[in-house]
Amino acid sequence: MKYLLLISLLVAGITTRAQEYNVALIPDSIKTDADAVLRNEYLEVYIKSLEKTIVKHKYAITIFNENGAEYAKYQKSYDTKSPLYDISGTLYDAAGKKLKTVKRKDIVDVSLQDGMSLMLDDRIKAHNFYYNIYPYTIEYEDEQDIKGTYTLPSWYPVNGEKYGVLQSKYKVIYPADYHLRYKEYNYNGKPTITTDKDITITWELNNYKPLITEFAQPSLREILPQVRIAPTDFVYQGVKGSFATWQDYGKFQLMLNKDRDVLPDNIKQQVHSLTDKLTTIEEKTKVLYDFLQKNTRYISIQLGIGGFQPFEAKYVAEKKYGDCKALSNYMVALLKEAGVSANYVIAYGGSGKGSDRVDASFPAEYFNHVIACVPNGKDTIWLECTNQDVSAGYMGEFTGNRKVYVVDEKSGGGYITKTPTYKYTDNLQLRTVTATIDKEGNLQAEVKTHFTGLAQELQHGLLHEATPEERTKYLNEVISLPTYKIEKNDYKETKGYIPAMDEILIINSPNYASTSSKRLFVTPNMFNKSTARLPTDKPRKYDLELSYPFRDIDSVNITIPDGYTVEALPQNMNLTNKFGNYKVSYTVNANTIQLIRLKERINSRFPASDYEELAKFYETMYKADRAKIVFVKKEG
Question: The Transglutaminase-like domain covers which part of the protein (predicted)?
Answer without folding.
Answer: 271-362
